[in-house]
Amino acid sequence: MCLTNAAKPLSKSGKETPVLSASCRRLMASSVLPSLSFFFVFFTLYQLPLQAEAAAKAAPVVVGNISKVDDAELFHIYYGQSFKVIKNSVDGKSYLLMQSNSRMAVRTKYCTGRIKSFVVPLSNYSVDTTNFPVSFFELLGLLESLKGVTSEQITSECVLKSYVSGSIQLVSKTDMHQLSQFTAHFISNVEQQQACNFAAFIPLDERTPLQRAEWIKYLATFTNSELRANAVYDAVKENYMCLTKVAASLTTKFKPVVAWVDYSQGIWSFAKESYKLQYARDAGGENIDDTITDNSYNVSDPDDMDNFHAILCTVDVVIDQTYALQPAEYKLSTFLENIVVEDDSRFGFLTNQRLWRYDKRVYNSVIVDWFDGAISQPQLVLADLMEAFFPTGNYSTTYFRNLAKDEAVITIDPELCTRSPSTPMDPTIVHCQ
Ligand SMILES: *[C@@H]1O[C@H](CO)[C@@H](O)[C@H](O)[C@H]1NC(C)=O
Ligand SMILES: *[C@@H]1O[C@H](CO)[C@@H](O)[C@H](O)[C@H]1NC(C)=O
Ligand SMILES: *[C@@H]1O[C@H](CO)[C@@H](O)[C@H](O)[C@H]1NC(C)=O
Ligand SMILES: *[C@@H]1O[C@H](CO)[C@@H](O)[C@H](O)[C@H]1NC(C)=O
């Protein structure tokens, strides 16, 4: 049956006692699709002897190391003795992960619209690098079994180093035959055509920075790395929460007003992604009001630009997230041209030098680490934003560069990887008193 520790707090010894959870029973009751029903009928039969035995001895069922999902909303993990099930509510699929030493692993294979099965731990895997944060694999220490990537547009020094040294091969994202040589192929775009070994990893759809980071536990189930995932997430979360507390104490009378702005095809607008607004709040800032962020401003329309300039005059910190083909070429002068301003003296965020971009770490002049490393380590983004909102001049930011000071980008260099691929990357913990 489905086992989870979600209903029980960890005991002092750190051991968990699994229980049949209400949500798991709901999961089983709602299995109306024929394939899904078959799946659970199979489970029920398979597990019956174990259940009877457990009831007779009243002994707790022993499962392996487990992860408990605390913050993320878009996936759940259920544990059995020799298997686990991830329910992914972004792609609507259940991933049945069977331990390689179980009888089930030999007999069972599912590849339907709603269920896929994998034998774990995975012996190797490949990644469709399009919008895919590979840094999660680094934190888990799994680079040794990463054998294929679909492009070298990656912002991790150590993945690039393995690629350059030949231990990771370049594969075509559409060549199903080539991709079938990997035990699993991880993707982030669930709209594409999928083979049986494709597994979706979609942290970006979550609402908050911590929820996105907790997807490390999702990946860890495929490799039995739950303990590592728990340790990483706990460290990241503790640091994030500590920084949030410090940020809350930094505000004097009024919080700094923050605007994430974006220029595209002649139009300025404000970003509304909830994780960005959450970052600004957690770093001690205040987001520009909802009633204003709905508007957009056409640079060819002088009235529009008057309105936009008026709003910018009220803002303390601006984050310019305008896409740049070559981030290094995006300078203060580019921003001023885009907002159609020659005289910058009337904007407080410019005179106070509080104009930032999140493209500080760049590979190959084009790929930005904001879309990878920043997702798995949100505590670093938070620390950057605190420096942006409450400058000390003492903190060296990771992802954000101060455009008002024309701060340059940092080029990611595979030579800077000093770890062996099998050594996990430790999360960077920011000093927090
Ligand atoms: C739990 O994790 C530890 C440390 O990674 C490992 O030694 C142990 O074999 C794991 N136990 C199970 C049942 O997977
Ligand atoms: C991946 O592992 C499977 C199963 O162990 C093996 O058959 C396959 O050759 C491996 N593929 C690569 C690219 O290493
Ligand atoms: C912006 O304004 C110009 C001039 O009025 C107009 O031609 C253009 O279509 C507008 N752009 C958009 C995206 O609405
Ligand atoms: C910078 O750091 C030093 C030593 O850590 C500290 O004494 C000083 O107050 C800091 N300066 C600012 C502006 O916070």
From TrEMBL:
Protein name, as recorded: Uncharacterized protein
Native species: Canna indica (Indian-shot)
